[in-house]
Amino acid sequence: MRSRADHGMRLDFPFTEHDTPRLRERVRSDLSRVARDAHLRDPALIALALTGGFSRGEGTTRQDTPVNDYDLLAIRAHPGAGALYRGIGARLTAELGIEVDILPVWQGRLPHVGRKLFWLDVRMGARVVCGDPGALRRLRRFDAAGVDGAEIARLLGNRAAGMLLSLPSEGERADPHQRDLQATKAVLAAMDASLLHRGAYAPGMRERVALSAAHPDHDAFATAADWKLRPQHALPDDWWERARDTLLRAVDETGARETQDGIIEHALHAARARRIAYSPSQRVRAAAWDLLAMSTFPGGPADMPRATRAVRHLGAPAVGLSWSALKATFLHARARTLQ
């Protein structure tokens, strides 16, 4: 059976700020490979839409090679196919040497998706690269002011967790790339959170930096965008610590600590942890911010007894006075929440 996605590829747009013939050929070849695999294995496929940095001309590359993920939506005539696309993504990740993440979505769900930042980004910046070019027309319409307020807290919580996980455990070697990557993501999250808090947003990172021109942390936002978009751009020696402070200021600015969990978050935690807890995602976020506030790179938390108290209330296994134990405890608790 021929898929309705068999309409040829549409890849005549820039993938990065510094496209070269070699890079364009690489990305086009990779995306064509993804489309062929999805087309062959899913007869219900209507269209594939590219999301993320490469769809907005802001893909991250090093030496003419893509380094950040290919993120795609598989718009389908029927619900389901999660396992199918996880398998496709894993196989292509191994073959292409870059993470391929494909999210299947039933076309009937598009008008009813949640008011999440992800869907706002899809509406503003996604590109249908094969199949029905109008496949996203039914996507629910809302602007930055309509984004669910909990999205800001989740964004800042997730990026704080990323910074913590970039800290090496005892005996591990520090990874400079992960240090810079997670710190930069945290600064960009602080920028986005600040903009969303005042009902502003734009699809492109440079546009968002421009929107934040009057913000006290604008210089950090611009530095982060440069590092993401310019392969040769160097970061300051104290970048991790600057990112920590920038993110924590955004937590205070947006009132993220006061964001409580909804019914879905409580239900998900009860199912995963097999117990009831009050605002479990909020508690995990608070622990992440508290741990981050007392940490430096690569040493981790400076006051281990205080750090232990910051995670003890999460209901995870008992911890010892070591960063590796604290990190394991934090991850154990985080895995049982929607955060």
* Rg for CA atoms: 21 Å
Which descriptor suits the 3D outline?
A: globular
Q: Total number of β-strand segments?
A: 8
Give the N-terminus to C-terminus distance in angstroms.
Answer: 40 Å
Largest sheet: 4 strands, mixed
Structural class: alpha+beta
Order of helices and strands: HEEEEHEHEHHHHHHHEEHH
Number of domains: 2
Approximately what portion of the residues adopt beta-strand conformation? 5-15%
- Low-confidence spans: 1-6
Per DSSP, the total helix count is 12
Helix content: 40-55%
Would you tell me the overall average pLDDT?
91
Explain this structure.
The two termini are 40 Å apart. The chain contains twelve helices and eight strands. A hairpin with a 3-residue loop joins β7 and β8. It is an alpha+beta fold. Mean pLDDT is 91; it is low at 1-6. It folds into two domains: 21-142, 2-Layer Sandwich (Beta Polymerase, domain 2), CATH 3.30.460; 146-334, no CATH class. It is globular, with a radius of gyration of 21 Å.
Outline of this structure?
The protein is of the alpha+beta class.
Features:
alpha+beta, 2 domains, Beta Polymerase, domain 2, disordered N terminus, 4-stranded mixed β-sheet, globular, two-stranded antiparallel sheet, 339 residues, 12 helices, 48% helix
Explain the layout of strands and helices:
Elements: H1 21-41, E1 45-51, E2 61-62, E3 65-66, E4 70-76, H2 82-96, E5 100-106, H3 117-125, E6 127-131, H4 150-165, H5 176-197, H6 205-211, H7 218-229, H8 239-254, H9 263-273, H10 280-293, E7 295-296, E8 300-301, H11 304-312, H12 323-334
Parallel strand pairs: 4-5
Antiparallel strand pairs: 1-4, 1-6, 2-3, 7-8
Helix pairs in contact: 1-2, 4-5, 4-8, 4-10, 5-7, 5-8, 11-12
